[in-house]
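Researcher: Here's a chain I'd like modeled. Treat it as a single chain, no partners, no ligands.
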Amino acid sequence: MSQIRAWAAPAAGKPLEAYSFDPGPLAPEEVEIAVEHCGICHSDLSVLANEWGNGIYPCVAGHEVVGRVVALGEQAKGLSVGRRVGVGWNSGSCNQCRLCQSGDQHLCSSVQPTIVGHHGGFAERMRAHWTWVFPLPDGLDSRAAGPLLCGGITVFYPLLNYAVPTRRVGVVGIGGLGHMALKFAGAYGCDVTAFTSSDSKHEDARAFGAHRVIDSRDSSAMKAIARSLDLILYTANVPLDWKALMATLAPKGRFHVVGMVLEPMLVKATTLIAAEKCVSGSPTGPPSAIAEMLDFAARHNISPRIERFPMSRINEALEHLSSGKARYRIVLDADFG
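Model: Modeled as a single isolated chain. Structure tokens:
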């Protein structure tokens, strides 16, 4: 088997270096993909820095992969060589447990994250189980489709589960996740409120689909929409004023967390009990929801706003993201030659 060229972190927090590895024989249910584009997500930064304590090094990150199938294991199904496909946060699951059998493969105790103990898409080729390799609809641009496979499904899945077109939806944090949430919620037919503390993002939020934009630091503006929202999607990765945000929920409203906030949330039980509110969260989503999200995005012409870098400038791209300068997702173009 020929070596695969990649970019890898040799240890936690270290700059990525050129790296080659032998992937070994292709497993019967595996798919090998020639990487064309790969998005960069804040989760890549977290794993590369070992912020969650699960990093394994050398680490080849990258889990918003778009490319072409170049090889199929003998038991891989539903794909063909040359097919344009994508892979997101997960690249495998056991497919035997009750969760997998019931369609919740993303919650499988043996689910395989694409970049933890597995080589991801910052490489010229990568592999995944066929159930986690998704044919891309013709309407999606390959250059921008990658972020849909992680950030896109992360915000689409709670809308699929908890929203209908008559719902009033709030989106907290207008960044890599939040700007896609605004687009999906608007296309879904919801009344959409964006929360941001950045004045520079108000115009963008409206362009992405928000019907109104609230400065989360403005107490009078927050009070003016008290008890009005049916669903809040919290996409930020830092804690904000939980009490003020919970107060904007209508009775029986849901506060749903998809941003990786590491600090505890301070929410009083009385806040939940008095108006039957709830707090919930979710990771990405199962294969069925990812396929549905891709079809929805193609039908409604939804794609993230991206900035592109050649993969050979990967450390520069990672710094651009970590410094908060990305507007709003970064995509690497494979240039191994």
